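Question (not urgent): is this output format expected?
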Amino acid sequence: MLSRGLERERAMSTQGVSGGSPGRPSTESGSTAGSRRPPVPRAAEARTTGTTIGDRPSPRSGGTFAALRVPNYRRFMTGQIISMCGTWMQTIALGWLVLSLGASGTLLGVVTAAQFLPVLVFGAYGGLVADRTNIRRLLSCTASLQALLAAVLGILVITDVVTLWMVVVFALCLGLTQAVDNPARQSFVQEMVGPETLPNAVTLNSVTMNAARVVGPAIAGATITLVGNGMCFILNALSFAAILVALARLDRSALRPNPPVARAPGQIREGFHYAVRTASIRIPLTMMVLTGTLAYEFQVTLPLVARETFHGTAATYSLLTGAMGAGAVAGGLLVARRRLTGVRSLVAVAGVFGALLLLSAAAPSLVVLVAALVVTGAASVAFIATGNATVQLSAEPRMRGRVMALWSMAFLGTTPLGGPIAGAIAQVFGARAGLVLAGVAAVAAALIGLASLRRIEARQVAAPVAVAPVAAGFPAVEHAAGKHAVAVGATAEAACSTATATVHPAEQAPSGKPSARPLPST
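Got this back:
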């Protein structure tokens, strides 16, 4: 069940994009309706091409392991991979524990829903907490709480007093910590590496997580067979010591924290409205709501496929999970090198991901399924990393925590809906039906994203645009004014700084190059 929180490691931003880094120059703005925008310098244009609504992959990303040149990131990744191995052990043990207590596929989905209901309900507030506080200390707090929860459940299992309601309570408490931990952890990567190396760093996070996805389930399968479920939870609790030590050893002077957001009324609502107004955030979020609800339910579908379809054991479930993890490592390394971002790239990856899920559902044997899941894992991590990078690249620093909380809600918080649905469908129509549902959802998300891109392109061609400045400190956003789109830029002073001017993702054409006028909101 914890795999939702693990699979969804994200990516962040590149230099010179709105929301790319603290202190970035504001977006240019014109002065009168219908006026032409000042030309964008080549340096600024080059910096923006990785983060547009419809961009193309950049072949130059500083190398596959560019982020590892940052000492703080190396320390953090070392602790992260040890902790991730323990968490994947817990993921396998938790799913098998629920089934061993006599639960059906539907009840497995309900337990999964209990874990992620707090993310859906409190996720937006968790993002605001991340914007307001010291993220390093916040991560230390959430890691300590998760270690305590794992230790308690492990003791309950070892002493043979655990019941299903205890597992549900554990899942709810774990979800409360994840509601704060997920947006904070995603935002913290940029504090360590800065905007220049951010896409590479977040993709390497995905690689790390999926490498642990291979090692953790393998250890879990052996541990469950030789010792029992309870020891997996105890080992996971101990693994959190690695991330706590890593956080304590970071060079704080080398971090790049954003100034804390001051308390003010309506800040959660402000973050939501900001995401809706920004097309390069809105479209990926919409796609992730659908795929997060119905496609990323592997913690429900894979145990059922292992047990019902192939009459396997916990080792079979570990094999399937490990196959996806191995593919995700390979896919993550490719994404790290190519640095895929943008809605157009996300649409293409979603289509491939859906097709591979449908192929996996039709696998006639366990060997074929394992092979198909390897490739599916590569597409899965490509979709997550591309969508996460696109969203973070489009968010300005003061909004990043709240925007990433919305991403976590779309990815994790939708499980309370999708988990029971996937479990019920697999229970009624067979375990393979859960994978069919996932594939159809991913393909539908790709079609929705493609339709949104085409609407934006059509409006860009058809609608006259007026450009006007607003108060300093606000990004360029889109507003409807009758049938005409009005782009609201930053201050006029920023327009004079053409040597460092940037273009907001919402103001770039789907080709990846700055447009003569902003893209209207759809």
